[in-house]
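Researcher: I need the complex structure. Ligand is sodium ion. Inputs:
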Amino acid sequence: MIIEPRMRGFICLTAHPDGCAQNVKNQIEYVKSKGAINGPKKVLVIGASTGFGLASRIAAAYGSDAATIGVFFEKAPSAGKTASPGWYNSAAFEKEAHAAGLYAKSVNGDAFSKEIKAETLALIKADLGQVDLVIYSLASPVRKHPDTEVLHRSTLKPIGGTYTNKTVDFHTGNVTEISIEPATEEDIANTVAVMGGEDWAMWIDALKTENLLANGATTVAYSYIGPALTEPVYRKGTIGRAKDDLEATAFTIADKLKDIDGKAYVSVNKALVTQASSAIPVIPLYISLLYKIMKEDGIHEGTIEQIQRLYAERLYTGGEVPVDEKGRIRIDDLEMREDVQAKVAKLWEEATTETLPAIGDLPGYRSDFLSLFGFEIDKVDYQKDANEVVEIESLA
Ligand code: NAD
Ligand code: NA
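Model: Output:
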């Protein structure tokens, strides 16, 4: 069938299999073009189907010939309905990897559950023996706690007071003022339960108990900081509390891995258009101004450029891993550069519905958003009938 984007609010209900496949191919080509990395060999990626997790899987497979197991929660295609983009991405990734002689298998289900952890551990035991890198890249609005069975919902709210600032509807380009009511203590606890470090620690504990972590193994989870202007809703809001918890968890995990000479890091990444970030108020306006400036300065990166750099210039240089004063790896260095942030802050003051087309990169935002779903990708013939029924080889 001919597949077109069907939007509902911040989500797109359809995905294009050929567009998603082309996205994966483009990422593979990028990694190959940068040359070999003396990187990981057996990798578990939790949250491997989209965004930073997908890039982490691709950069490992094509940067250092790594065998990869990817865990994700995606929808298979069903009668008259396309699959979710992460399904098509993973199908394309496995197909490419297998053709290139690389081991790649996937586990589709709730990574927060005991069942999916057990299934993944059994697969590692059977096929890889041990892993030397574990990437934790989940982004989810909900988590059913495996012990209590309580369903926690994360929120994106300021703490301590109402936050009012500009935001943009990236579909229409309308810039308006938005006020977000402050979180309750319960909102904070729930957000920490979903996006904090507890589940990451549970994964690493389970892997270590079963002796599935190689000597010297590394684990990395992803965080974000961002500028002062988004602080109330991001870093000092509910999600920021969860990121504080995630960052603290890196230290407790690192302690537990000392006997196998293992390492645990949080990497602070750049703001990028993903399904998760487009739902956060204020952030899309910030990103559209940031993109404009970073593209003009020739320092714009997407997820694959970020992760290729994380491996090649931070984790696998052969030397010490460079970290900031809080022990975090920083690949948001270009976003956070003083000159870049000064320009964004100035444009932020000027941004209105009328000025945004000239001072911001909304077309870039929209096109990145659509490309998450496999639309508006070069080299894809959207007039051609697409077969929406695509299998993930290891799950078929
Ligand atoms: P994303 O939405 O693109 O990816 C989320 C992944 O998690 C997908 O593979 C999805 O299938 C998987 N997932 C979600 N719920 C799951 C579940 N219950 N069980 C199994 N898999 C599940 O998100 P992203 O933007 O790549 O975010 C990944 C991490 O990077 C997050 O910690 C996020 O905070 C962080 N980060 C994002 C940005 C950004 O701007 N997007 C910047 C810095 C850091
Ligand atoms: Na991800």
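Model: Summary of the prediction. The radius of gyration is 20 Å.
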